[in-house]
Structures are given as structure tokens and as C-alpha cells.
């Protein structure tokens, strides 16, 4: 629970997906003694047992240190979401709709796929979501719980937040 975790992704040989394919691990921590939102290596204790979470990460990083998701106009994009933490995170994508194509590894039949722009990811759950990059720009993808993107920091650092960025 201190953050040494990741995804083991077994590709489905029947999946015809060819576009960008991104893995996003959601996690949260209680970080003591943050320095302008930054945890200095070796300087602070991260308490995994606290329910006073104040540091919300995507792939171990807190905005603005999260990695943007580059796409090209027309791409079909897959995002693989995995919540390895203790909180639920309603992940919201601006400017687009997506379909939920898999839940906890299980492929969802085409006729049963929901179209959404927010998906609640509970502790332990995984979802694959897919959609077309059909709205050029720079779009937020973030947890919709304000505390999880605003944090208790004394500066403007922003938690579980990243962006979909169209390549020119
Ligand atoms: Cu959240």
C-alpha cells in the first residue's frame, strides 16, 4: 500500500483495437509534510493506513506531474483504469463520450456497452473504456470528487487529474 504496484496487462488476441492504449492506476495516500504539493524522496512518511487522504495519484503521480494522454484526431482510444486504492473515484472525461468495453477483465458484449463520460471506479475495480478522438483540443480527465483534485495543499497542485492532448 506504499505504492509499489502496477498493471499486468494480458492482451486479448481477439481484440482488434489498434489505437492508443493507456493504463491508468488510481491510488491515494496520506502524505505528511508536503512541500508545495511535492513529496520529497526520503523526507516524509506516507501513511497507508490513514483515511485522511490528501495525495491522489494517477500512475503514482499527482497533477501537474501526471503524464498527459496524446491522441490524434480520428484515433480510437482505449483507457484501462485500475483502482488499487481505498477510495472510489468517479473519473470524468471532458469533451467526449466513451463506451465501457470491459469490467474487471470481462469483455462486455457490444449490445450491453454503456455510453458515458463519467465512470465510478470503486476500490479494486478495473474498467476498459474506449472512444473516438473526435474533438480536437486539450481536455481534462480527472476524478470528479473535488477534494481529490483540489487537495489540502497550500498551493494549486491538483491531485488525480491529467489531460487528453491532441497531436498536431
Ligand atoms: Cu477520487
UniProtKB/TrEMBL annotation:
Keywords: Copper, Metal-binding, Oxidoreductase. It comes from the Bacteria. Residues 57-152 form the Plastocyanin-like domain. PANTHER family: FI03373P-RELATED (PTHR11709:SF394), MULTI-COPPER OXIDASE (PTHR11709). This is Plastocyanin-like domain-containing protein. It comes from Paenibacillus motobuensis.
Amino acid at each position: 500500500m506504499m505504492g509499489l504496484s502496477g498493471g499486468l496487462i494480458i492482451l486479448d488476441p481477439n481484440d482488434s483495437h489498434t489505437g492508443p492504449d493507456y493504463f491508468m492506476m488510481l491510488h491515494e495516500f496520506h502524505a505528511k509534510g508536503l512541500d508545495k504539493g511535492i513529496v520529497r524522496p526520503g523526507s516524509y512518511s506516507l501513511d497507508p493506513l490513514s483515511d485522511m487522504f490528501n495525495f491522489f495519484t494517477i500512475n503514482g503521480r499527482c497533477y501537474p506531474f501526471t503524464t498527459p494522454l496524446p491522441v490524434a484526431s480520428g484515433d480510437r482510444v482505449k483507457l484501462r483504469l485500475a483502482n488499487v486504492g481505498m477510495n472510489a473515484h468517479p473519473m470524468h472525461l471532458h469533451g467526449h463520450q466513451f463506451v465501457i468495453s470491459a469490467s474487471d477483465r470481462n469483455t462486455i458484449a457490444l449490445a450491453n456497452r454503456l455510453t458515458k463520460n463519467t465512470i465510478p471506479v470503486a476500490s479494486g475495480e478495473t474498467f476498459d473504456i474506449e472512444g473516438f478522438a473526435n474533438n480536437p483540443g486539450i481536455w481534462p480527465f480527472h476524478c470528479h470528487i473535488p477534494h481529490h483534485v483540489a487537495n489540502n495543499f497550500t498551493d494549486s497542485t491538483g491531485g488525480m487529474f491529467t489531460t487528453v492532448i491532441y497531436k498536431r
